[in-house]
Write a structure and sequence with these properties.
The protein is an alpha+beta fold. 40% of the residues lie in helices and 19% in strands. Strands 3-2-1-4 form a four-stranded mixed sheet.
């Protein structure tokens, strides 16, 4: 009887720990925004909408980038050193730094 009780207890503990681990991974992945891993120097200024942009610093696998919202609500990662990007961001408001 005690071996059966111990087995059931260990099984329940294992299931509990596994479910907590899975829940923590889902929470973490939802809170970390995706980042730009490459940028484009192509001039897409005609497709940029709104008057704001975001700046991303280089860290881990993320690269330094300016992020614009384009038509259709998509985001574009562009090279902050490109001349057209410097001109466009000078006219816009910076929303945040990621």
């Amino acid at each position: 009887m005690s071996i059966r009780f111990l087995s059931i207890t260990l099984l329940l503990l294992s299931v509990h720990l596994f479910s907590q681990s899975s829940a923590n991974k889902r929470i973490i992945s939802k809170n970390i925004p995706p980042c730009c891993t490459k940028v484009s120097a192509a001039n897409i200024s005609i497709d940029v909408t709104g008057d704001t942009y975001r700046q991303q610093s280089a860290r881990y696998h993320c690269v330094e980038a300016i992020i614009f919202t384009t038509r259709g609500g998509k985001e574009a990662c562009v090279d902050p050193k490109a001349e057209w990007v410097k001109k466009l961001t000078a006219k816009m408001t910076k929303t945040d730094k990621i």
